[in-house]
Amino acid sequence: MENGIEEKSNETEVFWQPENYYCPRPEVHSAVILLNNGISEANVKSVLQWWCNASLRICVDGATNHFHHLMWQQQGAAACHCPCPLPDVISGDFDSIQPDLLKLYSAEGVTIVPTPDQNETDFTKAVRVAASLIRERQTSVNHILVVAGSNNNRFDHVLAIVATLYKAYQITSTPVVVVWGGSLFWVLGAGRHRIQVSAELCCNPSSSWCGLVPVGQAATATTTGLKWNLGL
Question: Thiamin pyrophosphokinase thiamin-binding domain: from which residue to which, for each copy (predicted)?
Answer without folding.
Answer: 193-230
